[in-house]
Design a protein that fits this description.
By secondary structure, the chain is mostly helical. The protein has helices at residues 3-14, 35-49, 59-68, 73-76, 84-102, 107-122, 126-145, 149-154, 158-165, 168-171, 173-188, and strands at 21-25, 32-34.
Length: 197
């Protein structure tokens, strides 16, 4: 198989990301978004909001993380942030998916995609920390825009939203402060269940 054929096959394979439905509703609240829609939204946010990163970041690398980070869900499926049971097998499922998907590419590109995906997962670089902050900001904003629809459906608590999103402050204190306002407003409205923190 030629390099171009490998790339084209990968491009067709990742079209499946459009079929992976997340738990977050789009802003109209008419339906849930797909992983592909989430990745696009996240990538645009990386370009628009880079000035709020705690440290200088390579914006193109953050955009790549946005576009690559959920490709593994083609095989592994989307694990809802608050699904404690699904979280137990998430890493194994996603590692297997990364091995299969990124090996479809020419070796140099496959290694780059795998490296970017793992860097995002580990959150050890400024880019990964900022990307992780944006990845969490996007569904919180949509939950707020839909009057807490998904939070209410799943009975999400204050403790859950704060603890599962706390790492945002490592990527962007400004975004964390913004999220806290959203959490406080939705707790007050009863969209997020109040807990004894």
């Amino acid at each position: 198989m030629t390099r171009l054929e490998q790339q084209m096959n990968f491009i067709i394979e990742i079209d499946k990301l459009k079929e992976i439905v997340r738990q977050t509703y789009i802003s109209s609240a008419e339906r849930k978004e797909t992983d592909a829609e989430h990745a696009w939204h996240f990538a645009i946010m990386a370009v628009l909001l880079a000035e709020y990163a705690n440290e200088p970041v390579d914006v193109m690398k953050v955009v790549k993380m946005a576009l690559i980070h959920d490709l593994v869900e083609i095989d592994a499926g989307d694990t809802y942030l608050y699904d404690e049971e699904g979280a137990k097998t998430k890493a194994d499922r996603e590692n297997k998916a990364a091995d299969r998907l990124f090996h479809m590419l020419p070796e140099d590109q496959g290694e780059e995609f795998d490296s970017i995906w793992r860097e995002f997962e580990e959150r050890k670089t400024p880019e990964a920390r900022f990307a992780a902050a944006l990845d969490r900001l996007q569904p919180v904003m949509l939950n707020d825009a839909t009057n807490g629809k998904a939070w209410e459906e799943h009975g999400i608590t204050e403790e859950q939203v704060r603890s599962h999103n706390e790492h945002v402050k490592k990527g962007s204190l400004a975004i964390w402060e913004y999220l806290e306002k959203i959490f406080d407003k939705n707790i007050e409205k009863g969209k997020i269940q109040r807990s004894s923190l």
